[in-house]
Predict the structure.
Amino acid sequence: MADVTFLKTKDLKCHFGGIKAVDGVDFTLEKGEIRAIIGPNGAGKSTFVSLLSGRTEATAGEVEFLGENVTRLPAYKRVRRGIAYTFQITNIYKDFPVIENVAIAVQSRLSNSGEKTGAGRIRAEAEKVLARVGLSQFAERKAGELAYGHQRLLEVGMGLALQPELLILDEPTQGLSDSEVSDFCDLVKEIAQNATILLIEHNMDVVMTLAGRITVLNQGRILAEGSPEDIRANRAVQDAYLGRGDE
Ligand SMILES: Nc1ncnc2c1ncn2[C@@H]1O[C@H](COP(=O)(O)OP(=O)(O)O)[C@@H](O)[C@H]1O
Ligand SMILES: [Mg+2]
């Protein structure tokens, strides 16, 4: 196949009334990257990735995934094409056991791919996923009883269970302890061997550890893009974000 960009947006916009949450973003992501998106609160990061996943509809512009224009595809169809995402707000079935949450995602993947879906196979795959995200000991607990950070990890597991081409993570380390954050970084590196990762993250240590490239959003636009070293040295980024010390 000719060179197809993994993911591309063209002049992508999302306006809520007078609020220009995303305001003309041209963005490309190559297969295999770990890309971080940073920027101050309200910069449009969550809205931008919601446009990629189909959770939010674009006001204008295009999203192209693996050469296909997916701008008007609903979220569930984008999931089938390989785009999985976790939200900033947890999106789990709180009354269901932890393992069931993952099993639902496993079953969804298997039935979409036409594979056999015996209960034993689903359970076994769900257990593997829980082990990867470090939640095996909570398998039978109600998901809503987990600590907030663990609920975020469960969401990552639900995304992983879909075996996505692109995994979008919106502030996944929020609420994790230092040692859990470090385990999470190891997990992301492992996931990145088989998937492309787009990560919204406030913890700059995590960003600098994981990201090959960083995109900085500010007021709905791309302010800067580059290697972690470039971004650290970028004056406009420092002014808008890094130097503020309160993020
Ligand atoms: N559903 C919505 N309706 C109205 N305004 C919204 C909605 N979602 C986000 N916004 C606004 O869009 C801007 C960008 O928000 P968001 O994408 O959540 O930023 P970030 O994730 O970078 O903190 C903010 O001003 C926010 O208040
Ligand atoms: Mg956000």
Observations:
- The first strand starts at residue 7 and ends at 16.
- The pocket of magnesium ion (ligand 2) is lined by residues 45-46, 88 (CB under 6 Å).
